[in-house]
Amino acid sequence: MPTLTTCLGSTVVSMPIDRAPLGTFLRSRRDRITPAQAGITAFPGPRRVPGLRKEELAVLAGLSPDHYSRLEQGRQQTVTDDVVEALSRALQLDDIEALHLRHLAAPTAPRRRMPPDLPARADPGMLRLMAQLDQVPTLLLGHRSEVLAGNTLLREVLGWSADPGASFARWLLLDPAARERITNWADFAASTVGALRFEVGRHPTDRRLAALVRELRDGDPDVSRWWDDQRVTFRTSLTKKVAHPVAGPLVFGIESVVGPHDPDQRLVVYTVEPDSPTARVLPLLANWATTTSDRGL
Q1: What one-character DSSP code corresponds to residue 8?
Q2: In this structure, are strands 112-113 and 11-16 parallel, antiparallel, or unpaired?
Q3: 222 phi/psi in degrees, rounded to 5
Q4: What band does 225 get if pLDDT is binned at 50, 70 and 90?
Q5: Superfamily of domain 18-106
Q6: Ramachandran class of 46: left when φ > 0, alpha when ψ lies in -120 to 50, beta otherwise
Q7: Distance between CA 222 and CA 156 in Å, rounded?
């Protein structure tokens, strides 16, 4: 069985690579594309699948049926870049899905990093960038969605403390207050689940991340359904609509920035359209939030 070697401090640990997620993802993408969409004539005979048959996809990707079956069954020990590229084209994957497939097919090479039980430290450069963006809500997250830093305006907009170490995903997906504050909660929540799937593909041996996903799936049926549909997202630009009890309806464009020193840290910036109602009210809300914070209210 293939193994993945990880570095924990100065210790090197080898562990089996779980190929089941690769097969599950391939099946889900195969089910969603029909022969007509793939540009081929359906093979004759009764169909028992909603999308492509395994044999049809194998032909599209230039693989033997046996080779592709081994991939879906998790029995293929090595998966070359050429095979990943061929499958991505045949399945018409977007860029993020193709990158996710590459992560699942060939887990990242060993990297020296701090032990996973130690808390992540906010990158100083990202903190300086946050300070320059204090006129809009900003949030610095780790790859498990843990809060590394957040500004006062973000806390006011979301009505959430965003304490360092808290899980943004846990708040968003399991706290009823998040559903009330974010009026397009379902769209934003589904994208967050897709982003967690992408991180699981990047960090296949991260037990704390896997435990968080299990907790979220057990805690809400919507999360479990979104997880099962195999959707993958990463740094997707989204619109977030917030119902603020004082400022009223707020609309933000959510953009993410990954710093050059630590790709596991992501700065989330709440942007606003110039001269929009949100842009006009945000300075007043920021001043009110700062004053309230200074008074300890």
Answers
A1: E
A2: unpaired
A3: -65, -45
A4: very high
A5: lambda repressor-like DNA-binding domains (1.10.260.40)
A6: beta
A7: 27
Distance, in Å, from the CA atom of 129 to the CA atom of 222, rounded to the nearest integer, reads 35
Angle at 168 between CA 223 and CA 297, to 5 degrees: 130
pLDDT at 271 over 80: yes
φ and ψ at 269, to 5 degrees?
-115, 130
Q: Where are the domains positioned within the chain?
A: 18-106, 124-294
Domain 124-294 falls under CATH 3.30.450.180: yes
Tens-place pLDDT, residues 53-108: 999 999 999 999 999 999 999 888 788 999 999 999 999 999 999 999 999 997 54
Q: How far apart are CA 207 and CA 213, in angstroms?
A: 10
257 and 234 Cβ atoms separated by less than 8 Å: no
pTM over 0.85: no
Chain centroid to CA 231: 9
Residue 147: pLDDT above 50? Answer: yes
CB neighbours of residue 106 within 10 Å: 18
pLDDT at residue 6 is higher than 70: no
The burial class, CB within 10 Å (0-12 / 13-18 / 19+), for 146 is buried
Same CATH topology for 18-106 and 124-294: the answer is no
Distance CA 91, CA 16 (A): 27
Cross-strand pairs, 4: 15
119-131 pLDDT, tens digit per residue, is 678 999 999 999 9
From the centroid of its chain, how far is CA 69?
A: 28
